[in-house]
Amino acid sequence: MTLLIKDCSMLDVVQGKVLDHMDIYIEGSKILRLGRNLNMVADEVWDGQDKFVVPGFINGHTHLGMSLLRNYADDMNLQTWLTEAIWPIEAKLNPKDIYWGSLLSMAEMIRSGATCFCDQYYAMDQVGDGALKIGMRGILTRGLIEDEKSQEKLEETRDLYKNYHGAGNGRLRVVPSPHAIYTCGTDYLKEVIAMAHDMDGVINIHMSETEKEVEDCVQDHGMTPIAYIDSLGMLDLHVIAAHCVHMTEEEMDLVKGKDFYPIYNPSSNLKLASGFTPVQKMKDKGITLGIGTDGDSSNNNQNILEEVHVGSIVNKAVNMDPKAMPAIDMVRMATIDGAKALGWADEIGSIEEGKKADLTIFNLKSASFTPRNNLISALCYSAQAEDVESVLIDGEVVMKDRVLTKIDYEGILSMVQDRMNQLLTR
């Protein structure tokens, strides 16, 4: 199939500017031509007037199946929240709960402009099936917590890699993922690192999320968390590191120049009172960051636009500097920098000829974009999920005029409510 979007405003995220009166010609899964007044024959032609086309947003850290637990346990610190509320009810989730919860999270992401995710959970085959169903791009990572089933979980990761890596025309990838240094012992972490070397050299982990994690690591290992994973050889891999709230300046210098990518989760960190990630300081040192929502039970939504907004304004306040984390930096974090963090920048994250057609189309005829003074500022500070009109992933239209094309959205809402009702009776 070919599609021509005529006369739109388009975000060049690399140059950090908006290009007006642009045509975008898509053939199959890729952007074939960009320009003005393109004379191309296409199966479909869309009028791009009053439309703003941006790279599909990238949600760098999620727990998609947790949408069933949205608003279930709130107003607690992380350890209490995990051990007394979340882990006990998670133990009662079954694979189909995770399938429908993940599908709801993906629908929510698409409706707010996200086209790609990095998810850590379990029953990840169900997450993969959901992504194939709805048409999303994503990284699947089976969260590994050391217990009596440690080796079984490693086998699950191997099976997931065998069955889903490269599925959906390459839309799905599989990456090994130890949950955190406080849920995995040294030897187990070394096993996962070895596995990651055999699976494309990428690993996903929670990192330095709380002060307690850092204090315990220093007490147990005589070094801070990132120095500790370096001692294990993890920094020889491409590391997707969720949170990094309490990363020290020495650790920043340690990872500078390495394939280490913090994923900033502003809403979750604020809600759990984990602290303020030193995002501006990391960027000043040349560290590339992505941005994520975290799970629905700690956010409590999958709206990446909200993260871009909150992430910018909270850093201005924390740094006492209104110039900290300007709009374009935050938008890049959700697009091209997010793609770099996930190891996918060769295919997604920017609108360029030859890249995948992962596109989010905003309707400019809305209060959020009126008047049209600065569209990049609007993306960061005023745009709302309801302004996302259409979304393409891999050249396929997954939402058109606010209607999801591949799934029954109302049916998902009903199914998730029914499954949560059942979960509470188990």
Protein architecture, described:
Strands 1, 2, 3, 4, 5, 15, 16, 17 and 18 form a nine-stranded mixed sheet that branches. Strands 6, 7, 8, 9 and 10 form a five-stranded parallel sheet that branches. A four-stranded parallel sheet has the order 11-12-13-14. 38% of the residues lie in helices and 24% in strands. It is α/β, with parallel strands linked by helices and 426 residues long. The longest helix is centred in the N-terminal third of the chain and has 17 residues, at 95-111. The model has no long low-confidence stretch (mean pLDDT 97). Strand 7 (114-121), helix 3 (124-134) and strand 8 (137-144) form a beta-alpha-beta unit. The chain folds into two domains: 2-55 and 355-404, Urease, subunit C, domain 1; 58-341, Alpha-Beta Barrel (TIM Barrel). The protein is built from 16 helices and 18 strands.
- Unreliable stretches covering 5 or more consecutive residues: none
Strand content: 15-25%
Class derived from helix and strand content:
alpha/beta
Please name the CATH topology of the largest domain: TIM Barrel
For the record, what CATH class of the largest domain applies?
Alpha Beta
Identify the overall geometry.
globular
Q: What fraction, in percent, of the residue positions are helical?
A: 25-40%
- Report the strand count: 18
* Annotated CATH homologous superfamily of the largest domain: Metal-dependent hydrolases
> How many discrete structural domains?
2
Question: What is the number of helices?
Answer: 16
Distance between the termini: 47 Å
Biggest β-sheet, characterized?
A: 9 strands, mixed
The radius of gyration is 21 Å
Q: Mean pLDDT, nearest integer? A: 97
Tell me what the CATH architecture of the largest domain is.
Alpha-Beta Barrel
